[in-house]
Amino acid sequence: MNLPQDPYMKSQYVNMMLKANNMDLYTFCVSAGINVTALEAELGRAGIRYDAATRQFKT
């Protein structure tokens, strides 16, 4: 899957996919072939964190 390179665009895209498909981050990453740890680390460097309770990335 080709995700946007900008971390803010990437987080918004992932949030949209999570909501549209009613998935949590782990399920989405497995289905899309994305390394969940690497994604969280990359977005974390930009100050974006995943909130498991709401199933979305937040700044």
What's the SSE blueprint?
Elements: H1 7-21, H2 25-32, H3 36-45, E1 49-51, E2 56-58
Residues in β-strands, percent: 5-15%
Helix and strand run? HHHEE
Helices, by number, come to: 3
Unreliable stretches = none
Count of extended strands: 2
Principal-axis shape: globular
Radius of gyration: 10 Å
Biggest sheet: strands, sense, closure? Answer: 2 strands, antiparallel
**How many angstroms does the end-to-end distance come to?**
23 Å
Helix and strand composition category: mainly alpha
What's the helical proportion of residues? 55-70%
The overall pLDDT average reads 96
Placed side by side, the strands forming the largest sheet appear as: 1-2
Explain this structure.
This protein is mainly α and 59 residues long. The chain is built from 3 helices and 2 strands; from the N terminus they run H-H-H-E-E. It has helices at residues 7-21, 25-32, 36-45, and strands spanning 49-51, 56-58. It has a two-stranded antiparallel ribbon. It is globular, with a radius of gyration of 10 Å. The model has no long low-confidence stretch (mean pLDDT 96).
Summed up, what is this model?
With 59 residues, this protein is mainly α. The chain has helices at 7-21, 25-32, 36-45; strands at residues 49-51, 56-58.
Keywords summarizing the entry:
single chain; 59 residues; mainly alpha; two-stranded antiparallel ribbon
